[in-house]
Design a protein that fits this description.
- The protein is mostly helical.
- The protein folds into 2 domains: 307 residues, no CATH class; 73 residues, Metalloproteases ("zincins"), catalytic domain (Zincin-like, 2-Layer Sandwich), CATH 3.30.2010.10.
- The chain is 74% helix and 4% strand.
- Helix 7 runs parallel beside helix 9.
Length: 416
């Protein structure tokens, strides 16, 4: 009885989630029918604007199809007790419990990736290609995939293996110890992301000598940021979309510019973008984000410790006995309403941080070049200029362009 109730709750959660997403998509589509406000005139020319609407519509349709497919597959797998069935099959072959769980997750990971493969191929080689963004060859796509598999097997295996070991050795107390392990992992990943993980997929090079480096050096010296920590990444080998990001803590900190960004923007705009990224560093967004995610992990692990040994969770997925891996899957879904809420909170904080980084760039360098850079970036990446405010609330880690431009302009007026 309890197992059936849990299955019912799980199905309700994924259904409600699916419906909410469809409603948000609908609102977002409707919102595009509004005229562009004055501030956004001139971001696109008329022809380019039509093309960007076409691009967004294609992506909207495509993501609605993949989401519906994913939802249908999940419902069928849950109703048929597939997850429990797979557990029963593997138990005939593997006795060691940690190995059993790892092979179980590996099998699910490979199956779900193969199921998603046609969608990934379509998105990259049909949609992104049609709109001129894709620069990836099929060869690079599969090399990336192979590397991703190896990395998942190595890191994922190590992390999940450690979790399972602690669960089996320590019982419900595991959460506190694994929290410690997870904290070390998160800090290390943060520190070594650009020195170990990014180079597996891309080439990072120091900014070469020339007038751009001189312009950035002048700014960097003024605000006290070491120019040696500015890097260029060869994003152009996969996509013509452009971006920049800040990563790392302490001496490992880096501002990374995409080569596609350097191609697209004037020197003045590039310094403004650097100023924005340096703003994230100066306002301590990286460190505070790190603390928040560590706190979040601890909370999640504690809730997990309350459910991990509950046999009804395994039975809800069709299992015949308590399986830690079945319970982890059930927990993943049961916990998702809470993780949606914490995700919303993280997005609220992230959008606030973006405004702060813009404000920092405006006061230390200038609002004019930053506005130009943001407009050009939006146009180049064919971003949606008129997202619905609920869609933004749920999904955007960055404020929409219009709000950012208005905030920058307000600040410029106030400081005059
Ligand atoms: Zn930012």
């Amino acid at each position: 009885m309890e197992a059936q109730l849990i299955l019912f709750i799980i199905l309700t959660i994924i259904t409600v989630n699916f419906v909410i997403e469809r409603v948000l998509d609908y609102l977002n589509r409707q919102n595009k029918k509004h005229d562009l406000p004055d501030e956004l005139q001139g971001v696109y020319n008329e022809k380019h604007y039509q093309k960007s609407l076409d691009y967004q519509q294609t992506n909207d349709r495509f993501s609605a199809i993949t989401a519906t497919f994913g939802f249908a597959v999940s419902v069928v797998l849950l109703l048929t007790g597939f997850f429990g069935w797979l557990d029963i099959q593997l138990r005939d072959w593997i006795e060691q419990p940690i190995l059993l769980s790892l092979i179980y997750f590996a099998a699910l990971f490979i199956a779900s990736d193969l199921l998603n493969l046609p969608f990934q191929l379509y998105q990259t080689f049909i949609i992104e290609d049609k709109f001129g963004f894709n620069k990836m060859t099929p060869r690079l796509f599969f090399i990336d995939k192979l590397k991703g598999y190896l990395l998942t097997a190595l890191l994922g295996g190590l992390i999940v293996g450690t979790l399972l070991y602690l669960v089996m050795e320590l019982g419900a107390q595991f959460w506190l110890y694994f929290w410690g392990v997870a904290t070390v992992i998160v800090v290390l990943l943060n520190m070594f992301y650009t020195s170990i993980f990014v180079p597996l997929f891309n080439e990072l090079t120091p900014l070469e000598d020339g007038s751009l480096r001189e312009a950035i050096t002048a700014y960097a010296r003024k605000v006290g940021f070491p120019i040696e920590n500015v890097y260029v990444i060869d994003g152009s080998k996969r996509s013509s979309k452009s971006n920049a990001f800040f990563s790392g803590i302490g001496s490992k900190k880096k501002v990374v510019l995409y080569d596609t960004l350097i191609e697209q923007h004037s020197e003045e705009e590039l310094v403004a973008i650097i100023a924005h990224e340096v703003g994230h560093y100066k306002k301590k967004h990286i460190i505070s984000g790190l603390f928040l995610s560590i706190a979040q992990i601890g909370f999640t692990l504690y809730i997990l410790s309350l459910l991990i040994f509950n046999e009804a969770l395994s039975q809800a997925l069709g299992g015949q006995q308590l399986s830690i891996h079945l319970n982890l899957i059930a927990f993943g879904i049961l916990y998702s309403p809470i993780s949606t809420l914490t995700g919303l909170l993280m997005n609220v904080i992230s959008r606030k941080n973006e405004f702060e980084a813009d404000a920092y760039a405006t006061s230390t360098y200038g609002g004019g070049p930053l506005q130009k850079a943001l407009k050009k970036l939006s146009a180049h990446n064919m971003s949606n200029l008129l997202p619905h405010r609920w869609y933004v609330f749920f999904h955007y880690s960055h404020p929409p362009l219009l709000q950012r431009l208005r905030a920058i302009r307000r600040q410029a007026v106030l400081s005059r």
